[in-house]
């Protein structure tokens, strides 16, 4: 099944996976603790504004994961002291879903003292507290749903990313992982190599 890009958020970890039929030539790079999705050197040129973005960034005492340009303003709201729920809801509502051919939803999560997951679709804004691993995706699984994700923060962020990459959803491209322990954040990624 193809569910597109997705996040899984839990109280002590989070993952983000790029799954793509249209733009598979992408990878994640680490820029001083901020993880960025961008084209590989052999990717065809594109003017699509939705294929390069920060997918994981620290904000305040928490960390944000998501599928687009909304990650940065959510982190900035957290830096300003917004509660996690408010930062997530405010930015998702303001930026709305992506105005592409598919009305692609924006998905995001905040992992911190309080963890939340959210999605803005063309017909709804959903933001929920996360007591256990919860998934939301751009297609099919587009409501926050508890998920059986065989991992916890003890496996480390790179292994979390690899396990997200290996989940049985179609068209995996790359994945990011993060662990959180009392504002101690560690990040990792897996580019499918």
Overview of the molecule:
With 193 residues, the chain is α+β, with helices and mostly antiparallel strands. Helix content is 16%, strand content 38%. It has helices spanning 71-79, 84-95, 157-166, and strands at 6-9, 13-19, 26-31, 34-39, 53-59, 62-66, 106-111, 116-120, 125-129, 134-137, 145-146, 172-181, 184-190. Strand 5 and strand 6 (62-66) form a beta hairpin. It is globular. The mean pLDDT is 95.
From the structure above, extract its key features.
193 residues; Glutamine Phosphoribosylpyrophosphate, subunit 1, domain 1; 13 strands; 6-stranded antiparallel β-sheet; alpha+beta; globular; 7-stranded antiparallel β-sheet
Series of H and E elements: EEEEEEHHEEEEEHEE
Q: What is the CATH architecture term?
A: 4-Layer Sandwich
Percent helix: 10-25%
Shape category: globular
Give the CATH class.
Alpha Beta
CATH superfamily: Inosine monophosphate cyclohydrolase-like
Strand content: 35-45%
Main sheet: which strands, in order across?
3-4-5-6-7-8-9
Radius of gyration from the alpha-carbon trace, in angstroms: 15 Å
For the largest beta-sheet, the strand count, sense and barrel status come to:
7 strands, antiparallel
Ends apart, CA distance between termini: 22 Å
**Helix count from the secondary structure assignment:** 3
In short:
16% of the residues lie in helices and 38% in strands. It is an alpha+beta fold and 193 residues long.
């Amino acid at each position: 099944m193809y569910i597109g890009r997705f996040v899984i958020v839990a109280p002590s970890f989070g993952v983000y996976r790029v799954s793509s039929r249209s733009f598979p030539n992408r990878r994640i790079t680490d820029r001083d603790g901020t993880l960025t999705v961008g084209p590989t050197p052999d990717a065809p040129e594109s003017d699509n504004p939705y294929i390069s973005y920060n997918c994981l960034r620290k904000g305040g005492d928490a960390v944000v994961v998501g599928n687009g340009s909304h990650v940065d303003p959510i982190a900035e709201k957290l830096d300003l002291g917004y509660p996690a729920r408010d930062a997530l809801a405010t930015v998702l509502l303001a930026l709305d879903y992506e105005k592409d051919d598919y009305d692609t939803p924006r998905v995001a999560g905040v992992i911190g003292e309080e963890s939340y997951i959210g999605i803005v679709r063309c017909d709804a804004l959903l933001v929920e507290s996360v007591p256990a691993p919860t998934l939301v995706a751009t297609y099919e699984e587009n409501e926050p749903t508890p998920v059986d994700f065989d991992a916890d923060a003890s496996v480390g962020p790179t292994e979390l990313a690899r396990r997200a990459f290996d989940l049985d959803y179609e068209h995996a491209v790359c994945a990011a992982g993060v662990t959180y322990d009392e504002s101690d954040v560690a990040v990792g990624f897996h580019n499918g190599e």
